[in-house]
Amino acid sequence: MSEDQFMGNLYQRFPVTVEKGKGSHVWDVDGKEYIDCMGGYGVALVGHQNQRINNAIKEQIDKIITVHSSLYNKTREEFLKILIGLAPKGLTQVHLNNSGAEAIEAAIKFARKFTGKKGMVAMKGSYHGKSFGALSLTFNPKYKKAFEPLVEKVSFASFGDIESLRSAIDDDTAFVILEPIQGESGIIVAPEGFLQDVRKLCDEKGILLIFDEIQAGLGRTGRLWACEHWNTAPDILCLAKGIAGGVPMGATLVRPDILASMSKGEHSSTFGGNPLSCAAGIAALKALTEDGLVENSEKMGKIFREGLEKLKENHHMIREIRGKGLMIGIEMKFEVKDILMGLMKKGVLMLYSGRNILRILPPLVISEEDITKVLHALDSVLSEEEQKKDVQG
């Protein structure tokens, strides 16, 4: 494909050239239709060509596209009011930026400035982005080794193990950061009680707790915030991906006393909070809360999981089904590359995590009919793969 000669070898590319999308479907340049379980790595949260998003963008373009945060803007003000009205308890101020990595970078600076400490504790299996600070908090060495030395004073604790976390903390620890459900490492759900234990430990030690809900937040898990499943709120919450319906945006939600520790000019973003993104963000938040998408995520996620569990009974290749809502991982006993290609041929786009895990992140508008089609396609592909392996074996 012609893009490759210009973009370098930075992405794992799939042989599909997408031309348009609608809801949970996309079409390639040849007119072939696919059910989209990739969702732009979770960005297409409220569906492709969501009418609320389209209308908001068109209306805002006719007003103004960019207003730096050194000036005021009513579209940004409205977005902030809606976002804070939905935020977990205590998070009443926001820094607007442009991506998940930027949201994490802001959180690092805010936490270090507020506490006056430098130590950072993340989780084994974590993924927080590829900019230098976010990369330092990301566990997988394959992303990091070539770029060391990274930011110092980072320790890693075992996800789900409170004693491992306790031993990783010292007197210079500024914060603990974690994903309530780890995405990149294979949809690993926090064990029951773990988030509550982490919250209690951080309170005991005077340490800030940061939740990365860049992938798991905004209705993806069947609740507006993934941390709601465990009735736990952080001191800082990082958001991005689908927050503006596909338009680039990130947000770092913060307790007001934490943000008050920052001085003017110590952190900013040229594009952060631009009216175009904010208009799309207003529309996305209204779609989630007024059009029943969070509830649909819970309902369709349950149907998806039940169907996958039935497939597991019939296919020895499947080791485990994990997740909440429409954030689902299928751990296989073998590599999934051929499965992904087989699904593409049958009109289904799906992600992977590592070599042996299928990752499902469809738009929250996905229907039961589409889920049934995906399950049939997966059933067929798995049967074909098992037959190949039986013949080869």
Helix content: 25-40%
CATH class group of the largest domain? Alpha Beta
- Strand adjacency order, main sheet: 4-12-11-10-7-5-6
Strand percentage: 15-25%
Number of DSSP E strands: 17
Mean pLDDT: 96
* Largest β-sheet summary: 7 strands, mixed
Structural class: alpha/beta
Enter the CATH topology name of the largest domain.
Aspartate Aminotransferase, domain 2
Which runs of at least 5 residues are low in confidence (pLDDT < 50)?
none
How would you describe what is shown here?
The chain is α/β, with parallel strands linked by helices and 393 residues long. The chain has 14 helices and 17 strands. Strands 4-12-11-10-7-5-6 form a 7-stranded mixed sheet, sandwiched between helices. It has a 4-stranded mixed sheet with strand order 1-2-3-15. It has a 4-stranded antiparallel sheet with strand order 13-14-17-16, covered by helices on one side. It is globular and about 60 Å long. 48% of the residues are buried. InterPro entries: AcOrn/SuccOrn_fam, Aminotrans_3, Aminotrans_3_PPA_site, Class-III_PLP-dep_AT, LysJ, PyrdxlP-dep_Trfase, PyrdxlP-dep_Trfase_major, PyrdxlP-dep_Trfase_small. This is Putative [LysW]-aminoadipate semialdehyde/glutamate semialdehyde transaminase. GO terms for molecular function: identical protein binding; pyridoxal phosphate binding; transaminase activity.
